[in-house]
Amino acid sequence: MPSARLLTYAQRAENHHNPAAKALLETIGRKKSNLCVSVDVTKQADFLRIIDVVGPYICLVKTHVDVIEDFEFSMIDRLKELSAKHDFLIFEDRKFADIGNTVALQYSSGVYKISSWSHITNAHPIPGPGIITGLSSIGTPLGRGLILLAEMSSKGTLASGAYTSQAVQMARAHRDFVIGFIAMRRMDGVGAEGLDSTDLANEDFLILTPGVGLDAKGDSMGQQYRTPREVVLESGCDVIIVGRGIYGKGNDADIQAQAERYRKEGWAAYEERISVQAS
Amino acid sequence: MPSARLLTYAQRAENHHNPAAKALLETIGRKKSNLCVSVDVTKQADFLRIIDVVGPYICLVKTHVDVIEDFEFSMIDRLKELSAKHDFLIFEDRKFADIGNTVALQYSSGVYKISSWSHITNAHPIPGPGIITGLSSIGTPLGRGLILLAEMSSKGTLASGAYTSQAVQMARAHRDFVIGFIAMRRMDGVGAEGLDSTDLANEDFLILTPGVGLDAKGDSMGQQYRTPREVVLESGCDVIIVGRGIYGKGNDADIQAQAERYRKEGWAAYEERISVQAS
């Protein structure tokens, strides 16, 4: 099998065994959108309004439910309704980073009960494989998928080099539940020295990439931006994550226009990638 | 000035400029307790009851408020009352691990408003220095202190070697707000190649150490345990963090007995450390 980079999203959906990864790949193909919008606002009403506006243009919404001041669990019901109405998946960007026993509680319990509604969540590999075991004990029976942070988009990040390789190795050992990475590029072959090449060719990790922007180069707290073309075509990533670049400006019509703009750019970069590889 | 390891907690309190670090060191000296109890239960009533029982024996309580199912903000008022009643500080073990803009919101806002009640919190250095800038923008005006995770106690952790050195270097560049580390040993001299030795001798990072237990060697999800003596005397750490080893067994009298047992062990190890160094 050729590298996942050379396949269409639909082809990859057929081959994937994890229910969340399969659903995401199918959604991307069906909606012609590899756009994930990251909605970091602090009021329920803004949160739901923005998601309703961008819904038609996205495959995935990325949330930080713990920044919402007037959170009530009924907001999750509204979010699930929007997910059904507009056909997108939900990704709570929790960045779990604790030992197995603790993350299992944080994932399943508490006010947010993330595992009950978020198709995909993510974790830092720092604590070691126990974090995957802990999250998988909750998420696998529910058909959820986990994204590991192999790299970050922020300035001076320590997620590079040997750290990144170890993250990928940890993911490879848990391919049923770990469906991909937060990374700036494809991870094909990373940390794979000495492994069987046939086995490697069959692996399909989704690459979700933050720090995507068309109009800004960075913020004052170390975030750095690249364009959809750089991310999808040049670096071979699968999903572009855009935040303030979409919802940060103007009224609903502006937000809608920005969402469509990013969807179009991200999809064009993917189509070019596929055509380049085919020629 | 000699290494912090050679000084009493009271001497270190006098020299420290960060209000949270100063208060913690004073509390340790006043209560003759370097014990932090980590309370990971999922019901408000259990949470408050355990803290009321262990309160007299601890300098610090470590919380994961996001695992409490029936959380209401009034629980925080009760926690603050217990903190005043029993004279201990509060450490929300949030393990922030996102970019600066996001962690600033997660720290100050949302349901939990952590910065409004937690004297100390912690963060992974992975995202780069922006995470400190983001948290400091909220915490410094409130007199809070930040602990960086330089190491972890779990099996297969990636927080070692160059990662740990970079964490310490990041802390050194923000000594007003970063007051110490989660680590398994002192960080004196780590990542300090080429730095001025007088300046280094004046630094005083608190070392808070998880994975402490007297009766167990580990759990099924990769947590590993060492004794208070190993941690405080041999490795020079300042605060021992104990969880299920204290509250995991029996009734209130048992919990109280375990808390006093760990307090005594931790304090004896500290007194031996000081006397060994003085002789």
From TrEMBL, chains A, B:
It catalyses: orotidine 5'-phosphate + H(+) = UMP + CO2. It is an enzyme of class 4 (lyase). The active site is at D93 (for ompdecase activity), K95 (for ompdecase activity), D98 (for ompdecase activity). Substrate binds at D40, K62, S153, Q223, G243, R244. Residues 34-259 form the Orotidine 5'-phosphate decarboxylase domain. PROSITE patterns: OMPDECASE. SUPFAM superfamilies: Ribulose-phoshate binding barrel. Its EC number is 4.1.1.23. Keywords: Decarboxylase, Lyase, Pyrimidine biosynthesis. Pathway: Pyrimidine metabolism; UMP biosynthesis via de novo pathway; UMP from orotate: step 2/2. GO terms for biological process: 'de novo' pyrimidine nucleobase biosynthetic process; 'de novo' UMP biosynthetic process. Pfam families: OMPdecase. One of its GO terms (molecular function) is orotate phosphoribosyltransferase activity. NCBIfam families: pyrF. Belongs to the OMP decarboxylase family. PANTHER family: OROTATE PHOSPHORIBOSYLTRANSFERASE, URIDINE 5'-MONOPHOSPHATE SYNTHASE. This is Orotidine 5'-phosphate decarboxylase. It comes from Fibroporia radiculosa.
